[in-house]
Structures are given as structure tokens and as C-alpha cells.
Predict the structure of Leucine-rich repeat-containing N-terminal plant-type domain-containing protein.
Amino acid sequence: MIKLHVFILIIPPPLLCFLLITLPLHVISQNVDAERSILLHLKQQLGNPPSLQSWNSSSSPCDWPEITCTHNTVTKISLNGKSITHKIPARICDLKNLTVLDVSNNYIPGEFPDILNCSKLEYLLLLQNYFVGPIPADIDRLSRLRYLDLTANNFSGDIPPAIGRLRELFYLFLVQNEFNGTWPTEIGNLENLEQLAMTYNDKFRPSALPKEFGALKKLKYL
Ligand SMILES: *[C@@H]1O[C@H](CO)[C@@H](O)[C@H](O)[C@H]1NC(C)=O
Ligand SMILES: *[C@@H]1O[C@H](CO)[C@@H](O)[C@H](O)[C@H]1NC(C)=O
Ligand SMILES: *[C@@H]1O[C@H](CO)[C@@H](O)[C@H](O)[C@H]1NC(C)=O
Ligand SMILES: *[C@@H]1O[C@H](CO)[C@@H](O)[C@H](O)[C@H]1NC(C)=O
């Protein structure tokens, strides 16, 4: 403490003001630069869709219409209806503060995107794309997930038991897919679930409504 006082006292006050003002700005702009370069790389991997023409190196990503920043860090990406035909690259999770990812209404092919490293993700909207294959068995790595909409794709297989470990989930829409397996009893563990929809899945194995659904005390919409 004493040493720090001495240090501050021997810096001329104008210089001290300069340091105090510019240091935080410098850190902020470095973060924004790093996140812009991640997003520009993402744009490239998405095949440079014309719908993302405002993503360029001379503007701040926080000013791009598809991006929302909170305290100068990217927290939301909304690519709804942007005619995207490429897979979502795993590098999107280099945006460490990403909480909302909406890629609804595109033509994205392939399996469930490789985004389980996006550890702060809360809202994931994949509806109306060309996704196929299973929901990952380790989807619970998205431990903060609150909202998951997979409507109108061709996902198949079982609903994995790991879904039951997404304790924050309040919205789960699995409508219109090709699920041809079973429901895990762990669904009953989703104590925060308020809306659950699974219509238009005519390949599910016929079964009784799982009695575990009775544990979903907050459910308002089924
Ligand atoms: C970069 O994008 C901004 C909008 O984000 C636009 O106003 C500007 O003209 C673009 N600059 C170039 C060089 O394309
Ligand atoms: C993420 O947000 C935290 C808290 O707002 C901030 O300190 C950190 O620098 C952000 N990370 C990046 C990569 O911008
Ligand atoms: C996810 O994160 C782990 C640990 O940081 C890393 O080893 C792995 O390569 C990452 N996976 C992807 C697909 O980026
Ligand atoms: C999804 O499956 C349906 C029925 O099997 C098929 O008609 C449709 O072409 C598939 N769509 C995609 C995008 O794979």
C-alpha cells in the first residue's frame, strides 16, 4: 500500500489522468478488435453471404445490425433469415461472452453444430434449417442453456438423457423433426421447464406419456 502511494505521487498528475483514462479504453478496443477478427473469420467460413456486407474491418462489430454487445463484448448473434448455406464453425465459441445464437430460417446443413464450447450460451435457435442426425449426448455441456428451439429440421434418434441435466431450461421446442427413438425419464428433472412442444414427430416410438412429466411443476404449455 505504502509503495503504491509513493508510486502514484511521483507520477505528474496530468500523466496520471492520461493513464487512468486511456488504459481501460485500450483494453476495451483490444477486446473489440479481437472479437471483430473472430466474426470476420466466421463470415468467411459462412461463405461471405451478401446479407452480411456490413461486417467489415473498418467498423465496430457492436454497430453491425446482426450483433448485440453488452459492455463492449459480443453477447448476441442474430442471423435469422440470412440465406446461410454453410455450417456454423466451432470458432464461434471464441466469442467468450456469447449468450444468444439465433440462426433460424436458413439452409444450414449437417449435424448439430459444434458449439458445445460456448459455455455462456443461454438461447439457441436452430429452427427451420437442414440439420440432421442426433442431439449430442453431451448437450449438457451448455450448462446455462435456458431456451432451445430445434423446430422444423430433420434431427433424428433419441432425446438424450443429458437434456434432463439442463437445469435452467424453460423452453424446449422439438417440433417437426425425424426423432425415431425414445424420451428419457430425466425430462422430469427439468424443474424450470415452462414450455414443451414436440408435435409433428410421427416417427417417435409409440409410448404412454412418461409419468415423469408429472414432476414438471412449472409447465404451462404442452
Ligand atoms: C463498413 O460497414 C459500415 C457499416 O457497418 C459501412 O457504413 C461502411 O461503408 C463499410 N465500409 C466499407 C469500406 O465497406
Ligand atoms: C467478457 O465479459 C467480461 C465481463 O463483462 C469481460 O471482462 C471480458 O473482457 C469479456 N471477454 C471478451 C473476450 O471480451
Ligand atoms: C473446446 O474446448 C476445449 C478446451 O478448451 C478444446 O480442447 C477443444 O479443442 C475445443 N473444441 C472445439 C471444437 O473448439
Ligand atoms: C427431411 O426429411 C423429409 C422426410 O423424410 C424429407 O422429405 C426432406 O427432404 C428432408 N429435408 C432435409 C432438409 O433433409
